[in-house]
Amino acid sequence: MTPHPLLAELTRRTAARAHAAAVTCPCGAATLADRPDATVVRHADTVAKAHAPDTDPTGLAPRLAAAAALPDVLLPPLALAPTLLHGRLVTFWPYGAPVDPDDPDAAPWEAAGALLAELHRTPVPAGLPAMRGPVKAARAVALLRAAGAHPALAPVLRAWRALPAWARAEAPMPGAGALCHGDLHLGQLVRSPAPDGPWRLIDVDDLGVGVPAWDLARPAAWFACGLLPPDEWTRFLTAYRASSGPAVPDDGDPWPVLDVPARALTVQSAARTVTKAVAGGRPLDEVEQCLVDACARMGSLPSQVAADFAK
User: Fold this and answer.
1) Model confidence pLDDT, tens digit, residues 211-229
2) Which of 12, 98, 150, 181 is most buried, taking the most CB atoms under 10 A from its CB?
3) Angle at 225 (CA atoms; ends 158, 219), nearest 5 degrees
4) pTM value?
């Protein structure tokens, strides 16, 4: 099958950049992702990413600059200015070794917690846009609505409507805001330089100013749903607190702060999985059904939590 023009040209340009930077090239070429919202290819130690078609160049530029300024936390880009290719913004990055999905015991929860804490403590750079986490959640729910009838639609939408407006991207996020990643999960960590360099966060598309608890919300949601073992959640939260992360109190119960973002990420995850199941004409698997069941249990937000997050 002939690759579409964007993928073919992205592959060619990545190879050219990789060969220019190396005396000898092992040519470890691969297509790492080819989705409507991102096409990512690797050639040796160089990775090229074609961002989503609706990516705003005025928002991407300060995000790239922030990554370049924080090389101990975020993987720095190889160039600050994106390239326009077949109508898509393209950025180039050093290759980093990802988390091994087949070795859950080696998951870098401590590194994730420490890196997030350092990111959240960093002064927000001037001109950085808002963190896009709530926008992505709202988009997932919109795609679910457009997918058509499904038994999971009602409980997911009820849980969505119970969230405060800011978590649905219908109002500004509360508080002064911190520097946030916006889409934290283990797939957003790599070792650089590969294969055993220090862990770094990747993917700046959602980086911005916002509620730092959002970055802890996906692990928190999976823990609350029973999908993340308690010891792994504890490792992550303990590392974040040990590094003076500002999103949660130093000790005691973190859930008054995490509750709303964790609910929002549960809804987002459920919406995505149901949309994929509808598109594939298949029933929900066990994990997907667990997320939908969690939405069904949510009901209304506790009044005090809603009031706190509305301030």
Assistant:
1) 999 999 999 999 999 999 9
2) 181
3) 105
4) 0.88
